[in-house]
Amino acid sequence: MTESLSSLRFREMAARPDAAVDLAEASLLIAGEEYPDLDPDRYLARLDALGATLRDRIAGVWGDRRVPPAQIASAGFIPARANDGNAAALVPALNRLLFEEEGFHGNTEDYYDPRNSFLNDVLDRRTGIPISLCMVYMEVARRAGRALEGVGLPGHFVVRVSADAPPLLVDPFNRGTVLTLEDCQRRLDRIYSGRLQLAPAMLAPCSRKAILGRMLRNLKGIYVKAGDYARALRVVEMLRSLEPDSADELRDRGVLYAALDCYAAAAADLESYLALRPRCADASELAAKVAELRGRAARLN
């Protein structure tokens, strides 16, 4: 399979230290696999413009002053428990810009549309899934001089605006709603029927590469469910660039090769996976699959 220019550039980006990864550019390189003629600069410029608007508004309304949380709460924005004035000022400004004026919203009608994971489509269509809308939220804030962090809750993705105790968490998928820890636990209860308790580790910020990995796994799942194994394979190759030592992605690539009738490549990947995970639960089944694939490959020669 010939490697595309987007894939090559993504691989170079993935080789950098995490702090040197440009989250927005890397996301557009992921989209470039679907849109070969995509111009990343066009969409980076759009984020720059939104960031400049936000920066001007913050400077014009709040400047560098710390706004008393009670003042923000009295204006109907966020709870007075937020004790970081700058964070409290940022949230209503971001929410007004992105959700009220620009019209960004969570795509609840077609959640598994792959376009929800492509940053160019999210910016064009003003809709996406939690992680892609969080990325827009974070990247616009970053361009306004405010560093926010992504938090990968089980089954959901949110933004951490302040790391105070309790942290200030915002849900861009739901128009920038501020979440309490109780809100997060209620969500876990709905998903896991009360079997999973919110733990401090779940509120830890995600690295940039972890965010990209989660986006790619979302796409992989969408393509596999649709039976689009060629696209799923492209996604796995990008995941392998991010996580070259991942045994799971090696296994998944082998399974996808098999689905695409690339028998020798599939057998090689599954054999390598078994060498790394000889005691995995499905080792005997995979060993039998490898033998079958080797036989099919031999018959083709």
Topology:
Elements: H1 5-14, H2 23-32, H3 40-61, H4 69-74, H5 85-101, E1 105-106, H6 119-125, E2 127-128, H7 130-143, E3 149-151, E4 158-162, E5 168-171, E6 177-179, H8 181-192, H9 208-225, H10 229-242, H11 247-259, H12 263-276, H13 283-300
Parallel strand pairs: 1-2
Antiparallel strand pairs: 3-4, 4-5, 5-6
Which terms would index this structure?
Serine Threonine Protein Phosphatase 5, Tetratricopeptide repeat; 6% strand; two-stranded parallel ribbon; alpha+beta; four-stranded antiparallel β-sheet; 301 residues; globular; single chain
Main sheet makeup: 4 strands, antiparallel
What is the overall silhouette? globular
- Strand numbers in spatial order across the main sheet: 3-4-5-6
What's the mean pLDDT score? 90
Q: Uncertain spans, ≥5 residues at pLDDT below 50?
A: 62-85
* Radius of gyration, taken over Cα atoms and rounded to an integer in Å: 22 Å
Q: How many beta-strand segments?
A: 6
What class would the helix/strand composition place it in? alpha+beta
End-to-end separation in angstroms reads 19 Å
